[in-house]
């Protein structure tokens, strides 16, 4: 499926339902009015004002993880830097205890291994482990739902959708979507961007020139994710007999929305490897499109921008040891499961 076909599918929710799982998925597995109600309530957690208020905490985490990176050896941007950073930002954002850090880091690896194995038993076990972590976090907080909220998790527990509080399974599902999916993708995003900066001095020079231009830097990072999109695919289910680019699709049939392929469709991006942030921004599908477009994009962008700002400040060069090229992730994951980058420290380091 190319760019046009992906857009055709994801912008027509009446023809292609997102209810593809037997598990409750809020909001991603919902359609129509129910989906709109949840999105209206949940999108409010990612407004520009909220992101601006969160930025100092994100920067503290970024400074700390960058300052703690080992010197004199390559840094694995996906496994070490990306995973630890994603987990620490998530704990700070949601107000969860720091003691969960190691368990969550381990969980990201366990979940990636389970996804790679494609074994239902392993993916179910990883999902259940995550739900158990969330349950442990929210159980004591549900007891004091009447008190003033102290953080984003407390606020979510008091959120009303269509005039009612969310049920416990709904809360677990929202938090799973905000965290479980994000941790792995954020780590892969850090790996993909680090790799491209390390192998391409021209791209690195351009990205460094955007250091004091937050929007320009964010556009550059989006473009690097387009070129090697680590968030590979989502699913839909046809609600009626239809067709995609002349290929018949029957009611009930599953359709794979392949973001990675769409983002490298040569009919849209003549040379998919060409780095051109401004020109390609409008066509970039890294964060999806249509009613299910990623609500967490502002947070993901904030996290990535701040991390790379801190990295650029602390280093003078990112390079690559041709002897350890890293390990490509296997579908259904994308990007690099291991992305070693050699850092030349300098500047503020
Ligand atoms: C790390 C980089 C990220 C990428 C590349 C990414 C990408 C995407 C894409 C392509 C979709 C569309 C799914 C579809 O159409 O079925 C999506 C949906 C979603 N994303 Fe993200 N995302 C990222 C980070 C985040 C973050 C940080 C959060 C929240 C904290 C988040 C929460 C969600 C949720 C809840 C949905 C489902 C929305 C709905 O169904 O209405 N994502 N994301």
Automatic annotation (TrEMBL):
Stretch forming the signal peptide: none
InterPro entries linked to this entry: Cyt_P450 (IPR001128), Cyt_P450_B (IPR002397), Cyt_P450_sf (IPR036396)
One Pfam family matching this protein: p450
Protein family: Belongs to the cytochrome P450 family.
Record-given protein name: Cytochrome P450
PANTHER family: P450, PUTATIVE (EUROFUNG)-RELATED
Molecular function GO terms recorded: heme binding; iron ion binding; monooxygenase activity; oxidoreductase activity, acting on paired donors, with incorporation or reduction of molecular oxygen
Organism: Tessaracoccus rhinocerotis
